[in-house]
Amino acid sequence: MRIKTVKVENFRSLYQLEVPLSQFVCVVGHNNSGKSSLLIALSLLRSGTKLTPSDYYDPSKDAAITAVIEGIDEDALNLLGEEHRDRIRALVLNSGLTLVRRYSPDGTPSLRCVVNAPTEPRFQDEYVSDLVKGKKGPELRSTMAAVYPEVADQVEAMATQAACHELVAKMARNLPPESFSSHEIPLPTGIANSVVALLPEPIYIHAVNDISDQIKTKEAASFGKILKILLDLIAQTEQMTDVTNSFERLNRMLNVVRSGGQTVDERMPEVRGVEATLHTYLKEQFRDVKLEIDIPPPDLRTILGAARIFVDDGIRDVVETKGDGLKRAVTFALLRTYVDLHAHMPRASAESKAINNPRYLFLFEEPELYLHPEAQRILYDALVEISRDQQVCVSTHSPYFFSAHGTGTFIRLRKDRPALVGFPPASAAHPVDLLQDLSKRDAFQIICYEANSAAFFCRRIVLVEGDCDVIYLTHVARALNRAWDFDQRNIAVVRVGGKGNFGRYRKFFNCFDVDVRIIADLDAIVDQFEKLGPDEESSRLHTLVMQRADALIQNGTGIPELNRDQIEGITAQRRFRERYNRCKGVAAKIALGSDTTPEELRDFSELFLPERNYMRAWVLRNCGSVRTEKEALLRALRASGIHVLSGGSIEDYHPAGTTGEDKPTRALAACSRIGSRADAVACCPVLADPSGIPRPEFDLIFDDIFAR
Fold first, then answer.
1. Which of 632, 662, 684 is the last residue of a domain?
2. Judgement on whether residues 576 and 627 belong to the same structural domain of the protein
């Protein structure tokens, strides 16, 4: 049983926000993007802490937090009071239940539910209650007949409001399926506490104490509450079972026990004597009244819940009075201890699982605070282990607190445009369920593996092919303009490991509404161009450029043959070897006189595609007769955030004479020779901007990347 989705309406900056939840949820975003508000909203589902006017996005409207709970079975329903169980069971559909924590504008909370009810209001229970309220006799019957003329003959026999409810309910049961839709209604029990046991108990671990944020302070878990979770494991041991049995014996000594319709009185004579004496004196004035004393016995959970942690750092006092760093360290130790003990504790039996394993919702703000990177990773692993049995939701600025395997749901929050005219910006969510969308999970894993996860926290991402691009482009940008500093402007340069990965990375980051730019070598035009994600106009211009280049290749004038190194580069490619092996098989079929398919013959033409692409790239670099079409294509690509280097590869933009043993060494050597804007401008060609004004190509690229 867990919360499947949550929808938050009109709470702080969360005007209309709905996100999926898994066992482990990671929430990222800039400061003041709504991360804490989402965690607090999850906590308010169960607590119902009263709101203040500043907690509403629009103070004139209700705020609401809607949770879809899944996996509700009989064990879960047994957590409810016996007097409420059947009414709540009737609300469960396909093991699911939707609960709504609604707040009126004055801050008053109520807990409601969503049911599949008749769309027509007159068949809804709330409507009937308002209709018959305060009415009886002829007035009741005439009102019912006016609203329900189709059963006017049955109304005449009605004498009570309950009968009216029963009649309308019977009519509703006979309505066709298309007459029903989802409606929010009050709980049929009328008591919020009758159903809160189906919601996990929130354990809110805030980032820092914020005295001005009253809700956060109220929702924050005391260390006693966290310690109780740890001590709950002890309650499952044989020794503690004996203690519990002792408490039950004590209860029988102090109280009358009622079970299964039977009453057993095994109380101590002294207790019965006190009760009898009280009863005697009471009957002197109220002869028909019965009196019974009930003495609450000790309860193991209450005892464990009262546990406190004292820390002596020179002054012995409870941990809540200590500094934030020490409190975080204690929290860290508690969670790791819970994981260690939980791993060695025997699992509860199926019958007692719901009772012996309470459900919690860990809400952890910025768990990385006061922890060095290694400790962050250890704490993340502990939270992953906890999430196997309990739901965990963290808000973080650290890439150490999510991964492709531990994280189930990844949510990026950002402040978008105002939801209402005259109001501040509202938070928008961009969630990805990594458990449901395996393609995104694979991409997520690759990105994390490549150590680019920090890019999730940046406002913009620039995708490049390799390390050399990262080294050289970041240096050149600062040389051109001090304001073009990637770190200071919170822009990440992410290497994708080859132009074939541009499309996958761009599509994945776009899921989180991250603004993406691309810087690619010129050969991306001739090989895997579609992976750049070009728009329709760029694709049209690309076709024209390729047609023009192929015409020049067909003519053959001035185009050099491939040299030995280029040929070896082609034959070393995995795709070439795969095509070559398929072609050998096709050649054998042809030699035997067997028929071949068009797909098999296509392998022969594709076998020579790398050679053609080398020639196309040479044409684009060196032939002035294709320059017009080429520059039109590059302008169209730049307009959509795709910057293809007109001069070739990034090495072609190094200062003349730059040498080195390998590409990274040459990139560093090139950086050492560029100390000013003039040095950088001298390394790139001049191109026309959209207005036709000649400008250095680097300026065109970085103007776009660093634009607000």
1. 632
2. yes
Distances (CA, A) of 406 to 4, 27, 128, 434: 17, 14, 49, 10
Residue type, 568: E
Tell me if 384 sits within 8 A of 24, measured CB to CB: yes
Confidence of residue 349 (pLDDT cuts 50, 70, 90): very low
Query: Does 548 share its domain with 662?
Result: no
Query: For residue 111, which of 59, 185, 56 has the smallest C-alpha distance?
Result: 185
Number of domains into which the chain is organized: 2
pLDDT tens digits for range 205-244: 888 766 566 677 677 767 777 777 777 777 667 777 777 7
Across the range 144-173, mean pLDDT stands at 86
Q: Please, which pLDDT band fits residue 354 given cuts at 50, 70 and 90? A: very low
Q: Does 527 fall in a domain?
A: yes
Whole-number mean pLDDT of the chain?
84
In this predicted structure, what is the pLDDT of residue 350?
A: 39
CATH number, domain containing residue 484: 3.40.50
What pLDDT score does 164 carry? 87
Residue 608 lies in a domain: yes
> Where a domain ends, among 632, 656, 687?
632
C-alpha to C-alpha distance for 610 and 607, rounded to whole angstroms: 7
Looking at the fold, whether 586 and 621 belong to one and the same domain comes out as yes
Contact 254, 297 (CB under 8 A): yes
- Structural domain range at position 670: 458-534+640-705
Q: Which residue matches tokens 């396909």?
A: 94
The pLDDT of residue 445 is 66
Cα separation, 272 vs 262, whole angstroms: 19
Return the axis-axis angle of helices 467-480 and 663-672, rounded to nearest 10°. 10
Q: What is the mean pLDDT of residues 88-113?
A: 91
Residue 348 has pLDDT above 50, yes or no: no
User: Are 552 and 608 part of one and the same domain?
Assistant: yes
Three-state DSSP at 662 gives coil
Looking at the structure, tell me whether residues 671 and 701 fall in a common domain.
yes
Structural tokens at position 630: 């080429």
